[in-house]
Design brief:
With 133 residues, this protein is of the alpha+beta class. It has a single domain, classed as 3-Layer(aba) Sandwich (Aminopeptidase). It contains four helices and five strands; from the N terminus they run E-H-H-E-E-E-H-E-H. Strands 1-2-3-4-5 form a five-stranded mixed sheet. The longest helix has 11 residues. It is globular, with a radius of gyration of 14 Å.
Length: 133
């Protein structure tokens, strides 16, 4: 079966939770469905990869549409990893915001080599600050 990539702004929290689980990213994301729904509604770009009805990957991003796009989630079902799906999701995300000059993301520790292979440049000046999350 062929993979189909598309913008899916109305992706459900339940489907998002399921792909987070099978991708291995769930441990680094909230588990409350209401918070996952809020994360989806706050995103300006949600790109999915589906094989038939099965959701196998999601990229979720926020952007100002002019300069910066932040990909806050990239997850691919572990059974589908290594097939270029993550790279395609990132490409589709960038294409959805053609005026953007800079695409940014924070890598999970185990995914650093994926992003380097996908052509992202490592940046040593990135910082994280959290508010009781």
């Amino acid at each position: 079966m062929t993979l189909v990539y598309r913008l899916e702004p109305d992706l459900s929290g339940a489907e998002f939770a399921q792909v987070l689980q099978v991708s291995g990213l769930a441990a680094r994301r909230p588990s409350e469905l209401s918070r996952l729904e809020a994360m989806l509604r706050g995103a300006q770009i949600i790109v999915t990869a589906r094989e038939g009805a099965r959701l196998v990957g999601v990229a979720r991003a926020i952007t100002d549409w002019a300069y910066c796009l932040y990909c806050s989630d990239l997850c691919v079902d572990e059974a589908y990893q290594g097939r270029g799906i993550g790279t395609a999701l990132l490409q589709q995300t960038a294409q959805a915001a053609p005026g953007v000059k800079t695409c940014i993301l924070l890598s999970a520790p185990g995914a650093v080599s994926f992003y380097e292979c996908a052509g992202f440049k490592r940046h040593d000046g990135a910082f994280i600050f959290a508010q009781g999350v």
